[in-house]
Amino acid sequence: MRLAELSERSGVPTATIKYYLREGLLQPGRRVSATQAEYDEGHLRRLRLVRALIQVGGVTVAAAREVVAAAEDVSLDHHTRLGAATWALPRVPAPAGDDAAAEAAREAVTGLLARLGWDPERAEIAASPAYRTLLDSVAALARLGYPCGTETLLPYGRVAAEIAVTDLDLVLAEPTADGQVEAAVALTVLYEPVLLSLRRLAHAEESARRAEGDGTG
Amino acid sequence: MRLAELSERSGVPTATIKYYLREGLLQPGRRVSATQAEYDEGHLRRLRLVRALIQVGGVTVAAAREVVAAAEDVSLDHHTRLGAATWALPRVPAPAGDDAAAEAAREAVTGLLARLGWDPERAEIAASPAYRTLLDSVAALARLGYPCGTETLLPYGRVAAEIAVTDLDLVLAEPTADGQVEAAVALTVLYEPVLLSLRRLAHAEESARRAEGDGTG
């Protein structure tokens, strides 16, 4: 298909598509003349993915390029590509700090990984942004004086493990390896707002149930 | 305590504290002279909360003011204050759209609430940002062609309900009503990065386990 049709079918303006092409977020089309290129279903899928990362996931253009590059790095084995793509996804930066709270957070998280039976070397050696975000968020809780020890964190770790099984089942349901890598990125990012908004709705439900239960609502 | 001590104990620079006071994010101190005011432990807690919302939660100053106002509105009953404070928390804006995907999302979410036994009027009438975020995120999944029907969403709804029980237990462990409202805001925001980073670490674990299991890693 030509650029105009790619724009029509994806709902992304042609100027934005040209910008994504220049920025390396979208693979170039097959050139058919000096001024025209041909695009296929792969371009359409990638375009939707990039759009979803940026618009729904709030991912920056630079970070989206990194994610796409990781997803395309065929020098990595398949499971590493799955991981590289999702681990490259950025998180809201948390304040750095090296104090008693940071130390307490390291202890709590180390204990948590042990209780969950997760491999601490896998988490730490990869120096994953997710691991740093976890440490920083737990340290922020500690600084505010909220409970955040291993036992408090454990139920959150358990539901995360539960969700990961559901997530991986969805990803591996995609028939091709490239489709799985793309799905891993898309589902990681797109299910984050799903999960967080469901949690907030569940708060309202749970709070209302308790209010009805104890008659003080 | 004086401003200098409040700054020392909270780790927030005095210029930032003065800015928060001007913006209504922090209640004024008790004036003791023409140029000095006295602050107490309540100021310290509020200051830490505002700092956490803005620095860890990535909440804007305007949104933080709205959250703080909802938390302080004593004309509301206690459970409504808990809800108002957390529902005022903003989410990443999702693209608007009224197409087949948006319609599919409405159907899937309506079905989901029914399956979970959640009150749809509670979710919709309040016109909560969480409900809109849920619809928008599910519509984005539908546009990308990923599975996002009621049955696919159900496991995410179930873990959200599970997490909400843990969350509410933590909130209600705070001894005072004001402390509970503050904890509801802080724990909602601060446990979001905890939960999302744990989910990403769990992905790595789960993916590695399956790779070891099927020998293709």
Describe the structure.
The structure is a homodimer of 217-residue chains. The first copy, chain A, has helices spanning 3-10, 14-22, 41-55, 61-72, 78-87, 100-116, 120-125, 129-143, 150-172, 177-214, and strands at residues 30-31, 37-38. By secondary structure, chain A is mostly helical. The radius of gyration of chain A is 21 Å and the shape is elongated. The mean pLDDT of chain A is 83. At the A-B interface, helix 3, helix 5, helix 8, helix 9 and helix 10 of A face helix 3, helix 5, helix 8, helix 9 and helix 10 of B.
Radius of gyration of chain A: 21 Å
The run of helices and strands of chain A is HHEEHHHHHHHH
Oligomer: homodimer
Pair with the biggest interface: A-B, 87 and 87 residues
Percent of residues in helices of chain A? over 70%
* Secondary structure tally: strands of chain A: 2
Count of DSSP-assigned helices of chain A: 10
Given the helix and strand composition of chain A, which structural class is it? mainly alpha
Largest sheet of chain A: 2 strands, antiparallel
Spatial strand order of the main sheet of chain A:
1-2
Shape of chain A: elongated
